[in-house]
Amino acid sequence: MFLDKTNLDTCMQLNASYKNMYKTDFVCTYKEFEKFEDDEVDADMMYRAQYLQIFGLVEYDERAISASLDLIKSKVIELPELRELILKHPHNSSFTSMEYNEDTVSDMLLVCLFAYPTMDAFHLCLIDAFKHGNITETSREKLLKAYSSMTLSHDAQEQ
Q: Is the dihedral of CA 87, 135, 18, 11 positive or negative?
């Protein structure tokens, strides 16, 4: 595509609109569906739908998700406590053993936090970060508890 002023303006507008798409007014409830046995709706299906919803999407759009992740990365830079929470992810030791720098590790772990075990708790931390400029103790503890359950399930699988 030839990039002239009109195309450049359009690209900039798209990027700006993508950055406003991360939804802090949405609460993830997909794990509540673990309690129900339903042939039509299950927790995994709800997780996939809510993954899109927190990015303001109805279908997968890599550019929109990437733009939202860039916005989240800027918040991580702004809030050291958010970065510390990300670096506590159980997979951190796997990445740091590969000799990546801390910024690269943080970026890789950020993507991991949108996986099923942690997305709901991490989303609460992001709501706090964007709305209040800090992470509440309640949100922090929920994320650490999710990390702990990941470690426990991993340890059980190894035995």
A: negative
Half-sphere exposure of 136 (CA within 13 A, CB side): 12
Which among 85, 75, 96, 72 has a CA at the least distance from the CA of 144?
85
Q: Count CA atoms within 13 Å of residue 114 on its CB side.
A: 19
3-state helix, strand, coil in the chain (%, to 5): 70, 0, 30
Look up the pTM and report it: 0.80
- Nearest residue to 10 (alpha-carbon basis) of 50, 63, 57, 49: 63
Give residues with Cβ within 8 angstroms of 64, minimum separation 6. 18, 21, 55, 56, 57
- Name the burial class of residue 43, with classes exposed (0-12), middle (13-18) and buried (19+) by CB atoms within 10 angstroms of its CB: middle
Strand extents, DSSP E, 10-156:
none
Which tens digits make up the pLDDT trace of 114-151? Answer: 999 999 999 999 999 999 999 999 999 999 999 999 87
